[in-house]
Protein backbone atom coordinates (compact mmCIF):
# COMPACT_ATOMS: atom_id res chain seq x y z
CA UNK A 1 0.00 0.00 0.00
CA UNK A 2 2.67 2.50 0.97
CA UNK A 3 2.17 4.94 3.83
CA UNK A 4 -0.84 5.78 5.93
CA UNK A 5 -0.92 9.10 7.78
CA UNK A 6 -3.50 9.19 10.59
CA UNK A 7 -4.08 12.50 12.34
CA UNK A 8 -6.19 14.13 15.00
CA UNK A 9 -6.76 17.85 14.58
CA UNK A 10 -8.75 20.53 16.36
CA UNK A 11 -8.33 23.66 14.26
CA UNK A 12 -6.64 22.34 11.12
CA UNK A 13 -2.99 22.80 12.08
CA UNK A 14 -2.24 19.12 12.71
CA UNK A 15 -4.18 18.27 9.57
CA UNK A 16 -2.00 20.71 7.59
CA UNK A 17 1.14 19.07 9.00
CA UNK A 18 -0.24 15.62 8.13
CA UNK A 19 -0.85 16.72 4.54
CA UNK A 20 2.64 18.24 4.31
CA UNK A 21 4.23 15.04 5.67
CA UNK A 22 2.21 13.07 3.10
CA UNK A 23 3.49 15.36 0.32
CA UNK A 24 7.04 14.53 1.38
CA UNK A 25 6.32 10.80 1.55
CA UNK A 26 4.85 10.87 -1.95
CA UNK A 27 8.38 11.34 -3.30
CA UNK A 28 8.95 7.61 -2.68
CA UNK A 29 5.60 5.90 -1.99
CA UNK A 30 1.85 6.05 -2.28
CA UNK A 31 0.17 7.74 0.67
CA UNK A 32 -3.30 7.86 2.16
CA UNK A 33 -4.20 10.51 4.75
CA UNK A 34 -7.08 9.87 7.18
CA UNK A 35 -8.59 11.76 10.07
CA UNK A 36 -8.42 9.45 13.11
CA UNK A 37 -12.18 8.78 13.33
CA UNK A 38 -12.05 7.38 9.76
CA UNK A 39 -8.92 5.24 10.27
CA UNK A 40 -9.16 1.44 10.36
CA UNK A 41 -8.18 -0.39 13.51
CA UNK A 42 -4.43 -0.54 14.00
CA UNK A 43 -4.26 -4.33 13.86
CA UNK A 44 -5.89 -4.29 10.41
CA UNK A 45 -3.02 -2.37 8.80
CA UNK A 46 -1.23 -5.44 7.37
CA UNK A 47 -0.63 -3.87 3.95
CA UNK A 48 0.88 -0.60 5.25
CA UNK A 49 4.63 -0.05 4.79
CA UNK A 50 4.74 2.99 7.12
CA UNK A 51 2.25 4.43 9.58
CA UNK A 52 2.63 8.08 10.59
CA UNK A 53 0.45 9.35 13.44
CA UNK A 54 0.01 12.94 14.52
CA UNK A 55 -1.98 14.75 17.18
CA UNK A 56 -2.16 18.12 18.90
CA UNK A 57 -0.70 18.36 22.39
CA UNK A 58 -3.43 18.85 25.00
CA UNK A 59 -2.69 19.11 28.70
CA UNK A 60 0.89 17.83 28.16
CA UNK A 61 -0.11 14.78 26.10
CA UNK A 62 -2.79 13.28 23.88
CA UNK A 63 -6.23 14.85 23.95
CA UNK A 64 -9.12 13.42 25.92
CA UNK A 65 -12.84 13.95 25.35
CA UNK A 66 -12.82 16.74 27.97
CA UNK A 67 -9.91 18.61 26.37
CA UNK A 68 -11.55 18.37 22.92
CA UNK A 69 -14.77 19.79 24.39
CA UNK A 70 -12.77 22.57 26.06
CA UNK A 71 -11.09 23.39 22.73
CA UNK A 72 -14.46 23.71 20.99
CA UNK A 73 -15.87 25.84 23.80
CA UNK A 74 -12.80 28.08 23.81
CA UNK A 75 -13.28 29.02 20.15
CA UNK A 76 -17.06 28.76 19.99
CA UNK A 77 -17.24 26.35 17.05
CA UNK A 78 -16.80 22.68 16.30
CA UNK A 79 -13.37 21.12 16.04
CA UNK A 80 -12.27 18.67 13.34
CA UNK A 81 -11.63 15.62 15.56
CA UNK A 82 -14.50 15.96 18.00
CA UNK A 83 -15.58 12.35 18.58
CA UNK A 84 -12.42 10.26 18.43
CA UNK A 85 -8.88 11.23 19.30
CA UNK A 86 -5.54 9.48 18.89
CA UNK A 87 -5.69 8.31 22.52
CA UNK A 88 -8.96 6.45 21.89
CA UNK A 89 -7.82 5.06 18.53
CA UNK A 90 -4.67 3.62 20.09
CA UNK A 91 -6.61 2.34 23.12
CA UNK A 92 -8.84 0.27 20.81
CA UNK A 93 -5.82 -1.61 19.48
CA UNK A 94 -4.68 -4.85 21.03
CA UNK A 95 -1.49 -4.99 18.92
CA UNK A 96 0.28 -3.48 15.95
CA UNK A 97 1.08 -5.55 12.87
CA UNK A 98 4.45 -7.25 13.32
CA UNK A 99 7.38 -4.89 12.64
CA UNK A 100 5.09 -2.10 11.38
CA UNK A 101 7.32 0.98 10.98
CA UNK A 102 5.68 3.93 12.75
CA UNK A 103 6.62 7.59 13.13
CA UNK A 104 4.92 10.13 15.41
CA UNK A 105 4.49 13.89 15.36
CA UNK A 106 2.58 16.49 17.29
CA UNK A 107 1.66 20.14 17.12
CA UNK A 108 1.77 22.48 20.05
CA UNK A 109 2.29 26.01 21.23
CA UNK A 110 5.94 27.01 21.36
CA UNK A 111 6.58 27.65 25.04
CA UNK A 112 10.05 27.18 26.52
CA UNK A 113 10.38 24.15 28.80
CA UNK A 114 6.77 23.06 28.28
CA UNK A 115 6.62 19.44 29.49
CA UNK A 116 4.78 16.70 27.67
CA UNK A 117 4.15 16.15 24.00
CA UNK A 118 1.43 14.20 22.20
CA UNK A 119 4.04 12.61 19.91
CA UNK A 120 5.91 11.10 22.85
CA UNK A 121 2.68 9.76 24.37
CA UNK A 122 1.67 8.17 21.06
CA UNK A 123 5.14 6.68 20.64
CA UNK A 124 4.99 5.00 24.07
CA UNK A 125 1.60 3.48 23.30
CA UNK A 126 2.72 2.26 19.88
CA UNK A 127 5.88 0.66 21.30
CA UNK A 128 3.75 -1.19 23.89
CA UNK A 129 1.58 -2.47 21.03
CA UNK A 130 4.65 -3.87 19.26
CA UNK A 131 5.21 -1.27 16.56
CA UNK A 132 8.70 -0.55 15.24
CA UNK A 133 9.06 3.18 15.95
CA UNK A 134 11.43 4.88 13.51
CA UNK A 135 13.11 8.15 14.40
CA UNK A 136 12.13 10.37 17.31
CA UNK A 137 8.74 12.03 17.69
CA UNK A 138 8.83 15.40 15.96
CA UNK A 139 7.03 18.57 17.04
CA UNK A 140 5.63 21.28 14.78
CA UNK A 141 4.74 24.63 16.28
CA UNK A 142 1.61 26.77 16.16
CA UNK A 143 0.92 30.36 17.21
CA UNK A 144 -1.42 30.28 20.19
CA UNK A 145 -4.04 27.61 20.64
CA UNK A 146 -5.73 27.95 17.25
CA UNK A 147 -2.66 28.57 15.12
CA UNK A 148 -1.71 29.13 12.40
CA UNK A 149 1.48 27.14 12.02
CA UNK A 150 4.70 29.07 12.45
CA UNK A 151 6.30 30.12 9.17
CA UNK A 152 8.33 27.27 7.69
CA UNK A 153 6.66 24.47 9.67
CA UNK A 154 4.77 23.04 6.67
CA UNK A 155 8.04 22.95 4.71
CA UNK A 156 9.79 21.30 7.65
CA UNK A 157 6.98 18.71 7.81
CA UNK A 158 7.34 18.02 4.08
CA UNK A 159 11.10 17.51 4.48
CA UNK A 160 10.50 15.20 7.47
CA UNK A 161 8.10 13.17 5.33
CA UNK A 162 10.73 12.85 2.59
CA UNK A 163 13.26 11.70 5.18
CA UNK A 164 10.84 9.11 6.61
CA UNK A 165 10.04 7.84 3.13
CA UNK A 166 13.73 7.46 2.34
CA UNK A 167 14.28 5.60 5.60
CA UNK A 168 11.53 3.08 4.94
CA UNK A 169 12.20 2.73 1.20
CA UNK A 170 15.97 2.86 1.27
CA UNK A 171 17.38 2.42 4.74
CA UNK A 172 18.73 5.95 5.31
CA UNK A 173 18.62 6.85 9.02
CA UNK A 174 16.27 9.57 10.27
CA UNK A 175 17.95 12.18 12.46
TrEMBL record:
GO MF assignments: electron transfer activity; FMN binding
Domain Flavodoxin-like: 3-165
SUPFAM superfamilies documented for this protein: Flavoproteins (SSF52218)
Top-level division of the source organism's lineage: Bacteria
InterPro entries cross-referenced by the UniProt entry: Flavodoxin/NO_synth (IPR008254), Flavodoxin_CS (IPR001226), Flavoprotein-like_sf (IPR029039)
One Pfam family linked to the record: Flavodoxin_1
Protein name: Flavodoxin
The species this protein was found in: Georgenia muralis
Amino acid sequence: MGALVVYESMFGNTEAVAEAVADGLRAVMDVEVLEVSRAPLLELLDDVDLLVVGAPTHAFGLSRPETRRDAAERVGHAVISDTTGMREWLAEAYSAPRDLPVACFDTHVRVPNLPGRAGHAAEKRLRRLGANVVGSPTSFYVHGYEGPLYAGEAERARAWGEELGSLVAGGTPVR
